[in-house]
Amino acid sequence: xxxxxxxxxxxxxxxxxxxxxxxxxxxxxxxxxxxxxxxxxxxxxxxxxxxxxxxxxxxxxxxxxxxxxxxxxxxxxxxxxxxxxxxxxxxxxxxxxxxxxxxxxxxxxxxxxxxxxxxxxxxxxxxxxxxxxxxxxxxxxxxxxxxxxxxxxxxxxxxxxxxxxxxxxxxxxxxxxxxxxxxxxxxxxxxxxxxxxxx
Length: 199
What we know:
The chain is α/β, with parallel strands linked by helices. It is about 30% helix and about 25% strand. It contains seven helices and eleven strands. The protein has helices spanning about 30-35, 55-60, 70-75, 80-90, 95-105, 120-130, 175-180; strands spanning about 1-5, 15-20, 20-25, 40-45, 45-50, 50-55, 110-115, 135, 165-170, 185-190, 195. The strands form three sheets. The chain has a four-stranded mixed sheet. Strands 5-9-10-11 form a four-stranded antiparallel sheet, with no helix packed on it. It has a three-stranded parallel sheet with strand order 6-7-8, with no helix packed on it. About 40% of the residues are buried.
């Protein structure tokens, strides 16, 4: 099925998706003229190639992402360090649920790729299943692990024939994205599938 994704502030870089691949990138008017029967998804903000979060091991293997039912006891933010290790030691089965919730939180921040060596087979499999790319991370990481790391690392531009992997942020331009962070994500697409949609 053909789908055109277009964002209000970046209509010159609309994306025509065919299955799991990018069929074309260009002005919305040009794409809809060529493929008038394509489904159209309209978004606020800007469409980007998505983000690489360089903290894959730290966020998915060394952090515990509480279940919403645990909010009263554990809060809602990722738990790291010795406290996370204690949770996993007490109940190793909690890793699977934590990884799924962690990946969902990353998708909600426009992450389409993670950096760093994933040593846990369960984590690597969960990342593969959802379709997150695994890339090399920078040699020097400037800040603490975060869902919206500083600086943000945008992937290279989308190209026809490449994977349909991108994110949309409700901002006016890239400068505002850098200033406000990845929490402005409204949609993430991986393998042509909408894997996150904001409210």
